[in-house]
Amino acid sequence: MIYHILAIGDVVGACGVKHLCRSLRGVKKLKDIHFTVVNGENAAMVGLTRGDAEQIFSAGADVITLGNHAFGKMQIAGYLDECPYILRPANLGSRVPGRGCGVYDCGRIRIAVMNLIGRCDLAWKADDPFRTADELLNNGEKPTFTLLDFHAEATSEKLAMAYYLDGRVSALWGTHTHVPTADEEVFPKGTGYISDIGMTGAVRSVLGIRAEQSVEGFLGGLPGRYQEPGGECKMQGAIFSLNSDTGLCTGVERIDIR
């Protein structure tokens, strides 16, 4: 049987959360989605609050993944230990709150979701994501599908991870850059892949924040606390069609809902 897995790109700010709430359930119904993963690390502009998480779950997310801003709002730390449906990057180490992988029962299938962070041009001193991926995959679990949100800056690191895990995970998508890439494909051994699935937030913005702020920063000024510009919003992501007999991918489709 073919199952459709939806991955939604980084939700940015209150307008991104609102657009997700308006749009997600309609897309899930239209595309016959069985499971949804939403990256929520920028829902509070920098970080995630418990209230943001509850709204994202209410919108239709099954799992929320995070990234380099996982602890941008420190009040989320305790909630990460409580809630098994929010994942922070597994390779941040064992000393930080939360978990980096979960296995979820979905009726006739079981889905593992992994969250990793890259090491190229990111401030976190994270463990090796390649070795961490091996550790997570060798933990004895045998789910129907295994999904990976790889939160990384460099497309080279994301592509290398895809080749490294080809045939060992069902789908791997990149987050963090907030700009969708046009390289969706099924790799030779059956892993669905795309370098970045984009973002959910303001269309007229620089990665979800007011363009004027970003310009001011590049000119050497003080842009100040991030502000969202409002206006038209977009919800970007990708749909992976997965075969439950093989655990592998048969197709990848980008989405952009405005």
What would you say this structure looks like, in words?
The longest helix is centred in the first third of the chain and has 18 residues, at 13-30. Helix 1 packs parallel to helix 2. The protein has helices spanning 13-30, 50-59, 77-82, 129-137, 155-165, 211-218, and strands at residues 2-8, 10-11, 35-39, 63-65, 86-87, 101-106, 109-117, 145-151, 171-175, 185-186, 192-194, 199-202, 233-243, 248-257. It has 258 residues and is α/β, with parallel strands linked by helices. Strand 8 (145-151), helix 5 and strand 9 (171-175) form a beta-alpha-beta unit.
Keyphrases for this structure?
single chain, 258 residues, alpha/beta, 8-stranded mixed sheet, 6-stranded mixed sheet, 6 helices, 14 strands, 29% strand
Count of discrete alpha- or pi-helical segments spanning 4 or more residues = 6
Give the H and E element order.
Answer: EEHEHEHEEEHEHEEEEHEE
Q: Terminal Cα separation, in Å?
A: 31 Å
Shape descriptor: globular
How many strands, what sense, and barrel or not for the largest sheet?
8 strands, mixed
Rg, nearest Å? 17 Å
Count of strand segments: 14
Low-confidence parts, pLDDT < 50 over ≥5 residues? Answer: none
* Quaternary assembly: single chain
Structural class: alpha/beta
* Beta fraction: 25-35%
Q: Assign a percent range to the helix content.
A: 10-25%
Query: How confident is the prediction overall: mean pLDDT?
Result: 96
